[in-house]
Amino acid sequence: MVLKLVVVEDDSPHAQALWQSLAAQGAEPVAPALLLFECVSVLRRLVARQTVRASAARIALDQLLALPIAFPTPDGLVDRTWQLAAHFYQPQAYDCFYLALADLLRIDYWTADRRLYNSVRGQLRWVHLLDEHAES
């Protein structure tokens, strides 16, 4: 969802509105450090596919790095990630790092990833789809 704040996509306005709403509530954004690696990878892929110019991708990266996001690593993060990946039959654990962090910190998790949301819906009530905020 965070990448939608710095790269224009169809639902970027929804991401912006959610970000502003959370900031107004005093929420402190957190993410696993993995977020940085994933965002750099996505930006490079957009450049390689000539979807975004390299200069625009670099500006987006700088904007991302300027966002007030903390990257805590609470005890048990890797173990909880493993448990969630096993429970939800996730062959790759990347998404489960985000879920595990939110679970350990007891905070809501917002995602634009409908596949992830559908895989945990009904079991992890603190996971929300970006579209939910757009509808409210």
Distance linking N and C termini: 17 Å
Give start-end ranges of low-pLDDT stretches. none
- Structural class from helices and strands? mainly alpha
CATH architectural label? 3-Layer(aba) Sandwich
Q: What do we call the CATH topology?
A: Rossmann fold
Task: Describe the fold and architecture.
With 136 residues, the chain is mostly helical. The protein has one domain: 5'-nuclease (Rossmann fold). It has seven helices and two strands; from the N terminus they run αααααβαβα. It is globular and about 40 Å long. The mean pLDDT is 96.
Features:
4% strand, single chain, Rossmann fold, two-stranded parallel sheet, 136 residues, 7 helices, globular, mainly alpha
Any chance you could write out the topology, listing elements then pairs?
Layout: H1 12-24, H2 34-48, H3 54-66, H4 77-87, H5 94-105, E1 109-111, H6 114-120, E2 127-129, H7 130-135
Parallel strand pairs: 1-2
Helix pairs in contact: 2-3, 4-5
